[in-house]
Design a protein that fits this description.
The chain has 152 residues and is an alpha/beta fold. 21% of the residues lie in helices and 29% in strands. Strands 1-7-6-2-5-4-3 form a seven-stranded mixed sheet. A hairpin with a 2-residue loop joins strand 6 and strand 7.
Length: 152
């Protein structure tokens, strides 16, 4: 487990850029944190670090649940979920399983609402926000993600 304390937005961007260097197709990132804690800002920085051109707009897909980023300079597709609206219904039978560990990188905000379909291996990133600074804790589940965390 790694903890980065009192991260500014600039620090969060740098962390996303560093992580991007080690990500590959099939990776799964689970982002935990309250509203406004930095999950989407982190995702935006990560997508940009993975090569997205300036035409790619990264916003939290709160209402659509899934935003797909393909092409536009990206080496592989990125599937960005915001599962907040699944709180009362879960993710089973929604067809989302096809995106997880598939042909791209999967990033899930509010993954606790998709727990019914998540595999046992992933990189967990927790955001705690307080007064313009955030603490970010990254932990790994599974050998692949433990090795990734060691590189970071």
């Amino acid at each position: 487990m790694l903890t980065f304390e009192k991260q500014s937005l600039s620090d969060t961007t740098k962390l996303a850029q560093n992580l991007a260097a080690f990500l590959s197709i099939g990776d799964l990132l689970l982002l935990y944190g309250d509203l406004g804690s930095g999950k989407t800002a982190f995702t935006r920085s990560l997508v940009q670090a993975l090569g997205a051109d300036k035409n790619v707009i990264v916003n939290s897909p709160t209402f659509t649940i899934l935003q797909q980023y393909k092409g536009h300079g990206l080496v592989f597709p990125i599937y960005h979920f915001d599962a907040y609206r699944l709180e009362n219904i879960g993710a089973a039978d929604q067809g989302f399983e096809d995106y997880i560990n598939g042909d791209g990188l999967t990033i899930i905000e509010w993954p606790q609402f998709m727990a019914d379909i998540l595999p046992g291996e992933y990189l967990k990133i927790e955001f705690v926000y307080d007064k313009d600074k955030r603490d970010i804790t990254i932990s790994a589940s599974g050998d692949h993600y433990r090795k990734l965390l060691e590189k970071l």
